[in-house]
Write a structure and sequence with these properties.
109 residues, alpha+beta, 3 strands, 56% helix, globular
C-alpha cells in the first residue's frame, strides 16, 4: 500500500484523488463512507469527516461532481458521481501532475 503524507494531500491532489475514485464508480456512484474506505485502502490516509465532507461539498459547488440520495440499502446515503466538467478537470490534473511531479521528485534539497 502506498502511504501518502497528509500534508501534501490537500487542494488539487485531494480533488484529483476524489474525482478518480468517483470516476471508477461512475455507473453507480460512491457514498461518503465508501470514499473514505477507498482513500485509506489506496493511500493509507484516514480522512476525518471534517475533511471529507467539506471537500465533497466544494467539488459539488464547482460542478465537478453531483449527488443524489439513495435509499436502496434501507438507509439514506448521498451518492456522488462525476460530471463531464469533473472528467475534464481530472484529465487536466493528470496532464499537469505528469509534467510537475518528475521535477519535484528529482529536486535536490
Amino acid at each position: 500500500m502506498t502511504i501518502l503524507n497528509r500534508k501534501i494531500c490537500r487542494g488539487p491532489i485531494l480533488e484529483s484523488i476524489f474525482l478518480n475514485l468517483i470516476t471508477d464508480a461512475s455507473d453507480r456512484g460512491l457514498h461518503g463512507y465508501a470514499i473514505y474506505k477507498a482513500v485509506y485502502k489506496k493511500f493509507g490516509i484516514r480522512l476525518a469527516p471534517s475533511t471529507l465532507y467539506p471537500e465533497l461539498k466544494h467539488l459539488e459547488k464547482q460542478g465537478l461532481i453531483e449527488s443524489s440520495w439513495d435509499f436502496s440499502e434501507g438507509k439514506a446515503r448521498r451518492l456522488y458521481r462525476i460530471t463531464r466538467k469533473g472528467q475534464m478537470e481530472l484529465r487536466e490534473y493528470f496532464v499537469e501532475l505528469r509534467a510537475v511531479i518528475p521535477s519535484i521528485v528529482t529536486c535536490k534539497t
